[in-house]
Structure formats: C-alpha cells, structure tokens
Amino acid sequence: LTSFKDYYQFAHPTRVVAGRGMIDAAGFEFVKDGAKRPLIVTDEMIRATGLTEKVEAGLADGGLEVAGIFDAVPQDSGIGVVEACAAAAAEAGCDSLVAVGGGSVMDTAKVANAIHIHGGEVLDYEGIYTLPRTEGYEGAPLPLAPLACIPTTAGTGSEVSFGAVIRDPEQNAKISFGDFPLFPRLAILDPEATRTLPPQIAAATGMDAMTHAIEGYTSTEWNPHGQAFAIAALKLIRENLSTAVLTPEDEVARGNMLIAASMAIVAGAAGSVALGAVHSMSHPCGGRYGVPHGVANAINLPHVVRFNAADEATAERYRDVAEVLGAESGADVGEAVAALLTELSTSLGLPQRLSEVGVPEAGIPELVEGAMGDGCTLTNPRELSEEDFTALYEAAL
Amino acid sequence: LPYFKDAQEVYDTVGKLFVELAEDPELAPKFRKADTIVQYDYTEPDSTITVRLQEGQPGDVDFGETEMEPEVTMRMKADTAHRFWLGKVNVTMAIARGEIKPQGPVSKILKLVPLTKPVFPRYRAQLEADGRKDLIDV
After folding, report:
1. Which residues of A touch B114 (CB under 8 A)?
2. What is the dihedral of CA A298, A304, A309, A315, to 10 degrees?
3. CB B55: neighbour CB atoms within 10 A?
4. Which residues of A touch B46 (CB under 8 A)?
C-alpha cells in the first residue's frame, strides 16, 4: 500500500521553455516576465564560446536592452564575486538578470539579485526563508527582480530550484540559501547552450542529475509529486546520458539531458531539501579536496545505494529505480542498481575511486565529521552513524 | 493559546533545559563540537535564549539580552521549541514549512539534531519534577 505523508511541500513556479532555437527567442520569452533591461551574468569561458553574444542577440530581438554583462564568475563562486555582481547590477541600472552558465553562475545571479533588490550583505541571507517579508520574518516574501536562467550544463538544476550555494573563502566553507523568491522566473533549455560542453563535464554533471533523481525518489522527504519528476528524469537519463557524453554532437541527447536535469532537481531539492547521504559525502569531498561535485556523486552513489537498500522499506523504492534504469534487480536490488551505476559511470570515463581524485585515507575522519554535519544526512532514508560513514568512505576510497 | 504565558515561563522551562545541558558532562562536549553561538529567537511570547557551543569555552546560556554575538539564529514560536524538546517536531519538515527559520550556517546546528533524542525524556522528567505536567500532553 502507498502510505500517505503527514506533510509535504511541492513548488515549481519556474516557467520552463525547452526546444531548439529558444536562445534566439530569449527576449520574446523573458519580456513576458516584465524584463526590459537585463544584466547578463556569465563566466569568461562561456563568453569566449560566443554563446553570450547569441543570448544578447536573442534578448535584443525580443525588444530588450541589455544593461551590461558581468562575466567574472569563477567555477566556485564566492561572496566577493556575488557582491561584485550585485554592484554591477546596480551600476548598470538593470531591472532583471539573465544567467548564462552552470550552477556557479546561476547561484551567483540568484544571491546577487537579493543584494541588488534588498541591499545588505551576502551573509545576511544565509539560511532558509531569510529574505525580507511583508512583516519582518513573517508573511509573504518580497519579490526579487525577474531572473532567467540558461543552463550550460545538464546537472545542477539550479535553473528551477529555490536554492543557491556560494563559497565563503574566509571560512573555507560553502554557504547555502533557500527561499521562494530565489526560484528563477524562467528557465530556457536549449541544446545550443551545451554544444561546447566537454564530455568529461557532461558525464559528471549527468551523474549529478542521476543522483538528484535517485536521492529525491528515495529520501525521507519523498512525495508523489517529486517522484513523478524523478521517474521521468531517470527515464530520460537512461536514454540520453551516454549518447550526450559519447556523441556530443547529438543535439537530441543534449536537449533531453537538459530537461532531465531540470526535472531531477525537482524531486530532490527544488522547493525543499530532500537529498541524502551521497550529497552528505560529496559536499566535504568538494570543500576539502576540490573534488568536482558530479564526480564525487558518481563515485559515492553506488556505495550509498547498497547501504540504503539494505533497509527493506527503502529497498522497495529502489526497485522502482531499478525498473526504470533497466537493472535486473532480483533479490538484491541494492547490488543490482549499484552495479548498473558503476558500469555506466565507468563507460562514461569517470573516476571510480575517491583516491583517484585526491582524497587521502588520512582524510576520512574529517570527511566523516563533515558528512555527519551535512543537512542531507537528516533526509537520508536510513540513519547513519559515524561508523557507517567511515565504512562508506573506505569503500569509496 | 500559547503554552507559555510570558518570557519568564519560557526561560523557566526550555531555558532551564539549556542550562542543564550546558552543564552535562556527557552531552555538553558533544554539543560544543558545533563550534558556534546559537540564538533561539522565540515569539508568542517574545523571548530569546543565546547559547555558546564552542569547544574550550564555557557553556554560557543567556536569557533575553546578551553580549554574545550569535552566528546562527533559529526563529520559531516558543510552542514549536517546546514541542521539539518533547520529541514531537520533525526538524526537516518544520524547516520546509517555515515553522523553524534558521539563519546562518545551518549545518552547524543540524548536525546536533541526532544528539537531541536522548534529551526528550529528560525534558519530560524536568517538567514533571517542576509540576508542569500540563505542558507534557500538548
């Protein structure tokens, strides 16, 4: 029998437009959200590919006047970058923002938007539901400027989520934000945006999307709305990830992976936080050893699947995952799904062990401490002790 | 109606628990691993408890105004705090619903959540000993 949840929240206020040529129609679409003078937020590498110029042309074609371009977002954006972006928005006199890039670019634009509209400092808004409201901390959140996102990777899903993660270099830590106004108004999913994506990044970000879907489907905060998105995302990932990585000129596969990534995050972290121990393990790997998030997720995912599926109630949900992914589950569904995931990530050329990407055995105690303190640990379907995390890291090493 | 009639009642119940936890030889060192200062900013009734959770530092607990500078602020109704210590609040659900609004490095506090389970029966025992059985079956 399907159980009935005591409570869940589902939110998907972002309008998604997907298809070929959508970048050319960026202005036509974004003007519907009230945008007139957007600031484009991007990074130097994306700009060098010429994609930003296409976005500019698409915005102009719809009657929008580009107020400026901020292209100084690095791979792991930090507080100083967000503040510089907010200052650029103020100086340009923009009334809206268009983020063209991966998660770092989109998250920078989200938090910079909050500073641009409400003032204050980045750390003022760290936490959940911290943006100004009609009655102080209560009531309806005050709106931000319209934000459109054009993702150039298919993984993070930030283009449809209410979360953002920024690096605090002083504390050498990632800081998180989550609130409804951070939902972008518009997400434009056009395979042209991932045309120059290097295969290794397509593989890692694709496995990030896979992790979002699986963890969202199986977490303690699972819910039928999210699960519908997760299953659809897993189906698209199964059918398109390998092709998108191994045959990058395949526009259909790239387009479908963009859609899959934007659906996968809805299951796990679009309007709430409902991921699990894979993310708990991967966050400190990134923070302490610079392991790319998607790579860490790809390595850690099979081990956590085995661990979680040992719990009979959770195993039932993994059977659904196995069916969609085409794993022959039999009696040991955890092993079946884990083996399939390992085979897939190996075929994509991704590293299989944390030791291959710079994580030393001596670092495990510190990683365990980080994982125990990660918010995603609370929503993992099976409770974890320090000993459990130690065993998982040792298995992944 | 709120469970507590004024701030003093909050301090005499929830606040008393924080003071006892800060002095607990087994639990206090574990909580201090959070290495932060937390302020619990309650409404209905308005009341504030600030707790120092820093290794090598005294386990200060201030009621009302404080000279400590909190790194994390947890905003909620005093009723929610009371129900939490009775073991009746799912923290992730409460955060998702906005019943608990954390500001600052939330993970520093979330990692303490698993440590709080043994405290629930202790809070009940404290209420019983203080003649506040009326606050237990809420």
Report:
1. 383
2. -50
3. 9
4. none
Residue whose tokens read 């698209």: A236
Residue A221 confidence (pLDDT):
87
Q: What is chain A's mean pLDDT, rounded?
A: 94
Neighboring chain B residues of A166 at a CB cutoff of 8 Å: none
The CA distance from A98 to A146, in Å, is: 9
A140 touches chain B (CB under 8 A): no
A:11-40 residues touching chain B, CB 8 A cutoff: none
Q: What one-letter code names the amino acid at B39?
A: Q
Confidence (pLDDT) at A5: 84
Q: Which two tokens stand for residue A229?
A: 């998105």
- A76 in Cβ contact with A167 (< 8 Å): yes
Rounded Cα–Cα distance for residues A264 and A270 (Å): 9
Which residue of chain B is at minimal alpha-carbon distance from A131?
B103
Among candidates A7, A128, A173 on the partner chain, residue whose Cβ is nearest the Cβ of B102: A128
Do the Cβ atoms of A373 and B108 come within 8 Å?
yes
- Give yes or no for A372 touching B (CB within 8 A): yes
Given a contact cutoff of 8 angstroms between Cβ atoms, the answer to whether B101 and B74 are in contact is yes
Cα→Cα distances A113→A119, A120, A128, A134, A269, Å: 9, 11, 16, 18, 20
Strand ranges for A179-257 from DSSP E: 186-189
Candidates A272, A373, A383; nearest CB to B110: A373
**Calpha distance A296→A363 (Å, rounded):** 15
> pLDDT grade, residue B113 (50/70/90)?
confident
Predicted pLDDT at A269: 61
Q: For residue B101, which residues of chain A lie inside 8 Å, CB to CB? A: 127-130, 137
ipTM surpasses 0.85: no
Residue B102, helix vs strand vs coil: strand
Tell me the C-alpha distance between A212 and A207, whole Å.
Answer: 9
Which residues 6+ apart lie within 8 Å of A73 measured at CB? Answer: A41, A42, A43, A81, A85, A101, A104, A105, A108
Tokens of A395: 């298995």
Burial of A360 (0-12, 13-18, 19+ CB in 10 A): exposed
Contact B138, B3 (CB under 8 A): yes
pLDDT digit string (tens) for B17-76?
Answer: 999 999 999 999 989 988 899 999 999 999 999 999 999 999 999 999 999 999 999 999
pLDDT by residue (tens digit) across A120-164?
999 999 998 999 999 888 899 999 999 999 999 999 999 999 999
Cα distance between residue A51 and residue A47, in whole Å: 6
B92 and A378 within 8 Å at the Cβ level: the answer is yes
Task: Report which of A180, A178, A87 is spatially closest to residue A134, judged by C-alpha positions.
Answer: A180
The DSSP H or E segment spanning A127 is: strand A127-128
Instruction: Write out chain A residues lying below 8 Å of B71, CB-based.
Output: none
Answer yes or no: is pLDDT of A264 > 80.
yes
